[in-house]
Amino acid sequence: MSGAASGHRILVVGAGYVGLTTATCFAHLGHDVICADIDRGKVASLSAGVVPIRENDLERLVSEGIAQRGLRFVISAAAVAATCDFVFLCVPTPLRSDGETELSYLMSAIDSVATNLRPGAVVVTKSTVPVGTAPKIGAALGRTDVALASNPEFLREGSAVADFLAPDRIVIGAENRSVAQRVAALYDSIDAPLILCDPTSAETVKYAANAFLAAKVSFVNALAAVCEAVDADVDAVLEGVGTDHRIGSAYLQPGPGWGGSCLPKDTRALVGVASDAGYVFDLLEGVIAVNEQQLDRVVAKVACAVDEASGIVRLEPGRGGPNLDGITVGLLGLTFKAGTDDLRGSPAIRVAEKLRDAGARLVGFDPALGGNLDERPDLEAQLPAGLTLRGSALEALRGAHVAVVLTEWPEFGALDWERAAGEMAAARIVDARNMLDPAKLRAAGFLYEGLGRR
Question: Do the domain assignments include residue 4?
Answer without folding.
Answer: no
